[in-house]
Design a protein that fits this description.
This protein has about 250 residues and is α+β, with helices and mostly antiparallel strands. About 35% of the residues lie in helices and about 25% in strands. The strands form two sheets. A five-stranded mixed beta barrel has the order 1-2-3-5-4. Helix 2 runs parallel beside helix 4, helix 3 runs antiparallel to helix 4 and helix 4 packs across helix 7.
Length: about 250
């Protein structure tokens, strides 16, 4: 087996057999990988807090010779825990949402340096004091764009009329619809969207993640974004994420 060293975010860990842990990691060079850390539950002090969700670590892993996606991780060295995020409950829960959503939507070993950088930038936003809600919306927009799941926001998804006014959003169809195309079927799940909300979506798509840390958004636009993106993300998931349930329970979402 070939030894590989790389930086990785911890997406998820779970007990594996008697003494080991199964870890889900996101790396810049290899995308999401899964690896077994043997004996860690008998010697947690060896790894300490390096196995905390969304911590950034340098890992050493051995790829399996005969294929498969379950590798052996033999070393985990902490790079940063992002303490500025962990000192605030809402920020901690939002960063947990980032890694949980990423883990659910990406395939194993499908590398995307842009996704790694997006996750890093988004957690740094939180650590630097950016609004958790605004950071979550930017993360969702950029994540959906990179995964090819972004809803159509430039023209009516039915008749292709550009920038309709008034405009409605339909979750099932996957984008905006004009008033004329808001059929009886579409009306059931279509809801009005403000121009400001669509303008902010387009601004985020045009901008680099690192340039969006200080972007401002009104309460009305923020609520409109949350309504669209939360429903659209949930539509693509098979179950509700634990982090979302927690954020809602605490009144953060």
């Amino acid at each position: 087996m070939a030894a590989t060293k790389t930086q990785a975010f911890i997406l998820k860990t779970q007990d594996y057999r008697d003494t080991s842990i199964l870890g889900h990691f996101y790396t810049r060079e290899y995308g999401k990988i899964r690896g077994i850390i043997k004996g860690v539950r008998d010697a947690r002090s060896r790894y300490g807090s390096t196995l905390e969700p969304f911590s950034l670590n340098e890992i050493l892993f051995y790829k399996r010779r005969r294929g498969g996606d379950l590798h052996q991780v033999t070393q985990v060295d902490l790079v940063t825990l992002f303490p500025g995020v962990r000192e605030d409950l809402e920020r901690l829960a939002t960063a947990s949402y980032f890694v949980e959503l990423l883990n659910e939507l990406v395939e194993v070993e499908d590398p995307s340096p842009a996704l790694f950088d997006l996750l890093n930038d988004s957690i740094l936003f939180l650590a630097g004091g950016a609004s958790p809600k605004r950071s979550a919306r930017i993360f969702e927009i950029k994540l959906l764009e990179l995964l090819g799941l972004l809803p159509e926001i430039g023209a009516c998804v039915i008749c292709r009329a550009p920038k309709p006014d008034p405009v409605y959003f339909n979750i099932g169809i996957g984008g905006i619809v004009c008033a004329a195309c808001r059929s009886a079927r579409a009306r059931e799940s279509a809801f009005p969207v403000s121009k400001g909300t669509l303008q902010f979506l387009r601004h985020v798509l045009r901008s680099k993640p690192a340039d969006l840390q200080n972007v401002k958004v009104s309460q009305e636009v923020g609520e409109g974004l949350e309504k669209i993106l939360r429903r659209f993300v949930d539509y693509h998931l098979s179950h509700k994420l634990k982090s979302v349930i927690f954020l809602e329970k605490m009144g953060y979402n």
